[in-house]
Amino acid sequence: MIYKFVLGVAIAFFLAAFNYPQLGPYLLSSIYHLYPDGLPGVALLLLRVSVGGLFILHGYPKATHLRQWADSLKTPIFLCFLSAWSMLGGGLFLILGFLTLLATLPILASILYAILLHLMEGKPFVAKDPYLIPNDQYQGPLGKGEPPSWEKAWMYCAMLIAIAVLGPGAYSLDALIFGR
Fold first, then answer.
1. Which of 31, 138, 165, 171 is deepest in the core (most CB within 10 A)?
2. pLDDT tens-digit profile of 53-83?
3. Residues 41, 170: contact at Cβ < 8 Å?
4. How far apart are CA 52 and CA 160, in angstroms?
5. For the chain, how far is it from start to end, CA to CA, in angstroms?
6. Angstrom distance (rounded) from CA 86 to CA 115
7. CA–CA distance from 69 to each of 89, 93, 132, 176 (Å)?
């Protein structure tokens, strides 16, 4: 994740050097260069903190059980390592509203890869309600559970894209650093 951060900072300042302020350091924060306050700012704060917290909750068990997770996905461990730590670090950065665009992109890449895995396995977009599935057809790890689908991953993508485009809002470190 460090190399992604350094590369992003280098590109942003390189572009700023050519008098493109809309593509300069502000690009570290979001695609949209305003920091709304008031109710829109509170809504962005709620979205950013919620998504960041959820990714920390998703990333921690993956980071602590990396080998088991990589084996279950049949994916190289280094990809799982990058994914887990992008969720942890990106989640923390989203909560703080710090380098928001750079925080969303690695997580978005991980989630898009998860969608690809679901599609390759033939999982549906929206699964049947677990209570409508006969008992002998699906049981989660602890009994009734959520049937596999890629609906949740798609929703995470939509939320990450909204944060990347709209930015962190006025109640963020980005607004404090880059705000106008």
1. 171
2. 999 998 998 889 889 888 888 888 888 888 8
3. yes
4. 10
5. 28
6. 17
7. 18, 24, 29, 38
* Residue owning tokens 């750079």: 102
Nearest to 91 by CA among 58, 43, 42, 63: 58
Rounded CA separation 14/99 (Å): 17
pLDDT tens string 81-121: 888 999 999 999 999 998 888 899 899 998 998 888 888 87
Tell me which amino acid residue 116 is.
Answer: L
In this structure, what token pair is assigned to residue 85?
């730590």
- Provide the residue type at 106 as one letter: P
Handedness of CA 114, 116, 121, 123 (dihedral sign): positive
Residue indicated by tokens 């396995």: 121
CA diameter of the chain: 64
The DSSP secondary structure of 15-72, one letter per residue, reads HHHTT-GGGTGGGGT-SS-----HHHHHHHHHHHHHHHHHHHHHHHHHHHTHHHHHHH
pTM of structure: 0.75
- Whether 175 and 35 have beta carbons less than 8 Å apart is answered as yes
